[in-house]
Structures are given as structure tokens and as C-alpha cells.
Amino acid sequence: MPARPALQVTSLIFIAIGLFVLVSGLQLRLFDRYGPGAGMFPALIGGGLALAGLVWLLQLSFGAAGRDLAPIDTDRAGLVRVGLTLAALLIFAALLPLLGFKLAMLLLLLAMLLGFKWEHVPLKIVLAIACSFGLHYVFEAGLRVPLPYSALPALRALGL
Amino acid sequence: MGLYGIGEILYNLELRHNAIKAIPVGSTLLTRQEVRDSVGPIARGTGIGVFLGLIPGIGTILPTIVSYAVEKRVSKHPEKFGKGAIEGVAGPETTNNAYANAALIPLFTLGIPASPTIAVLLGAFMMNGLAPGPFLFAQNPTFVWGVIASLYVGNVILLILNLPLVGLWVKLLDVPYSILFPLVLAFTVIGAYVANNSVFGFLGYAFKKLDLPIAPVAFTLILGPLTENALRQSLSMSGGSYSILFRSPISTGLLVFVALVVIVPLFSGGVRRFLNRLPQEDD
């Protein structure tokens, strides 16, 4: 895949994000009676990002920055793996409050371990259980980092 | 965590590193000749690492490259570099360690993170209600000296873990990536969840894929709220007048420096082409 169009699209995304933040900042108040308002910093940062994105786009389109760029490797199978992993992470994030950390992590690990290669199945199941429940124990008991429990009363009663 | 960790996992997952094999590890003890050859590079590496560690924004790669280049330059047998010369390892590795420790000095004294890793550390400080800067030593001496002591303890633990167990760590490469990456992902997801920034995983992957540096995003995420607070405080003090930013010579000097850093690269290509053209016109 040629790099220049991909980077040009990226610069356009930066410009769009910058303009969105700039407009959002302007809609808030730039100044209030105490000095700078809530919209001041977003407006400055958004404007700066949009301006930098525009300069980058111009450099890519007309300057030396757009020449001699190495093409971006695109392996279809690799992209599918990345897409599936991202989808699994999004599902994990959605299930986390509902099922709690232990079950959601168990499902994520099972999907990741068995989804790409169906081999060493008993070992991978043991690893997934040990890692999900073990990590929860280590973080809660050892490091005292609270991890979420299930929102469902039935699962919560089971300590999940 | 999301930006670096998940982004890296996704990138490696796309490449699928199946071909990595553990290499056999021999003795980890240095010979007398290797010790003699390492003394100079270690001394120079320490100096380079400490000096560059004091400069914010250098990053971890540049000091090691500088050290490698210096060692190659001063070596009597530069042709051996890249083929097992101990100086090419001792210098950059010492620089790396010296840089990592020295980079904490701007953080502790000025609250400025010198590298993305230190920026993550700064984020951890702030999450725990600590404000790095000149007052940190006075207000939280137990914490500061605890961190400094932990560097010594950490290095001793590293020595104990790495030398006798290096063979075991190398053997980890034999674990199939299809088993290794979900486990690494699990740890990273917890870190990203705790830091509440899991959404940046895809961003990290996309930046890596497009060969864009991730460090500015990490700096922005960590320094953005700090900068906003500082700017709001300054403008509140001046009643909204930006002239307060230019009243102090140090502040003005720093702002001019930052402006140059932003503007000069925009025109450096044109200036270089102009300068290249000059001798031809003379001819």
C-alpha cells in the first residue's frame, strides 16, 4: 500500500480532530471573570493540531516529505488477526462490567489462545483459567488494585 | 500502557514472529581481556548517559547511538564493531542504564519527563497525588529517597535474576507466540484498564504501522493536563493577559526556543536546497 495517500488521510484526520476540538472549545467560554475559560486550552490545542495537520498535508502533497516514502506493508491475514484481536478487546471491554474481570478475562484469553490455533487445548484452557483468576488474585490481594466484579447479583454472589 | 503495550502486541501479531528461536547461551562471566576492554567504554558511557539524561526529550535511543558511535570512533579496531566487539556492547548498555537513572533528575527537580517512560512514571506520580518539582524533596522526602533506593535494589535484583537465569529467559523465545501474546495481552489490558486508557491501543498500532512516532502522543497525554493547569493559573494571575508569559527572561527564552523547534524543521529543507544551489551559481 502506498504510504503517501495513507499519510494524507491521516493528516486529514488530524485536521478534522483539531477543528472539532477548536469548535468545541469556542462553544465553551474562552474567558470568564477569573481569566481564561474552560474553552481556552481546547481551542488553542485544537487550533494548533489543525494547523500542524494542514502543514503536514501540504508537505506531503507538494513538498519533499511526500517523496521517497517506503510503502506500508499490508498482509491481509495479518490485518484480519489484528481486526479480530481488536474486536475481542472491544467485546471484553463491553462484557467487563457485566461479567466482572475474572469471567471476561477468561473469555478473552480463551478466544485469543484457541481462536488463532486450535492446538494444545487442555494446556491453553488451564493457562486461561490460571491467568484470569490468578491475575485477579495477585492484583487485588497483593497489589491492592481493585478490579471490577460482575454487575449480575448471581455471579457476584459466586465471587465473580 | 494501551498506547505502547497493546499497539506493540497488535503490530507483532500482524507480523507473526514464528521464526524466532532461542539461541544457546554459554558462560556469562567476562574474561580478563573483556574486562580490560570494557573499562573505558563503561566510563565514557556513564558520562554520556548522565549528561544526555539531564536534557529533556532526548529519548532512550539517541544516547546509545551516540555511545556506540563514540566507541567506534575511539576504538583501535572499529572493523570488529558489529562482529562481537565487547566495547560495542559495554558502552551503549552503560549509557542506557546511566541515562535511565539520570533522566529522573529533571523529573524530580523540575517535573519535566525526559522520555516517554519517565512520562508514564510522572503519570503514576500524579495518580497518587504527588506533584514532581522543586518541592517534592521537601514535601515527600520519604517517597523520593524510596524511589532512589529502589533503583539500587532494582539493579541488584536484576543482577541476581539476569546472570544465573539468562538461559531460562532466552528459553521463553521457544514458547509459541500464539500462547505468549494472549498472556502478555492480559497483563497489558489490566495496566490499560487501571490507567483507564485502553482506547489508545489501536492508536498505538496505527502510529506504528504508519511509522509515526508514538512519543509525542504519550507526552501530550501526560503533559497536556499539567500544561493546561499551569496556563490557566498564569492567565488567572494576569487577568487573562498573555503578556505574563513573556515577563520573565527564562520564560521568554524557553518560548522562543520551542517556537524555533517547531518552525525550523518546516523551512530547513528549503534552506538546505538554497544553500546547495549557492556553490553551483558560483561555478
Characterise this structure.
The complex is a heterodimer of chains A (160) and B (283). By secondary structure, chain A is mainly alpha-helical. Helices cover 72% and strands 2% of the residues of chain A. Chain A contains 5 helices and 2 strands; from the N terminus they run H-E-E-H-H-H-H. Chain A has helices spanning 3-27, 40-62, 76-116, 121-142, 153-157, and strands at residues 31-32, 35-36. In chain A, strand 1 and strand 2 form a beta hairpin. The two termini of chain A are 46 Å apart. By secondary structure, chain B is mainly alpha-helical. Chain B contains 12 helices and no strands. Chain B has helices spanning 2-15, 32-53, 61-74, 87-102, 104-110, 116-127, 136-139, 141-171, 177-195, 200-209, 215-237, 249-282. At the A-B interface, helix 1, strand 2, helix 2, helix 3 and helix 4 of A face helix 1, helix 9, helix 10 and helix 11 of B.
Write a concise keyword list for the protein shown above.
heterodimer; A: 160 residues; mainly alpha; two-stranded antiparallel ribbon; 2 strands; B: 283 residues; 73% helix
Explain briefly what this protein structure is.
By secondary structure, chain A is mostly helical.
What distance separates the N and C termini of chain A?
Answer: 46 Å
Helix proportion of residues of chain A, in percent? over 70%
Rg of chain B (CA only) = 23 Å
What is the H-and-E element order of chain B?
HHHHHHHHHHHH
Number of helices of chain B: 12
Amino- and carboxy-terminal Cα gap of chain B = 56 Å
Helical residues, percent of chain B: over 70%
Task: Outline the fold blueprint.
The complex is a heterodimer of chains A (160) and B (283).
Chain A lengths: L2 H25 L3 E2 L2 E2 L3 H23 L13 H41 L4 H22 L10 H5 L3
Antiparallel strand pairs in A: 1-2
Chain B lengths: L1 H14 L16 H22 L7 H14 L12 H16 L1 H7 L5 H12 L8 H4 L1 H31 L5 H19 L4 H10 L5 H23 L11 H34 L1
Helix pairs in contact in B: 1-9, 1-10, 2-3, 2-4, 3-4, 6-11
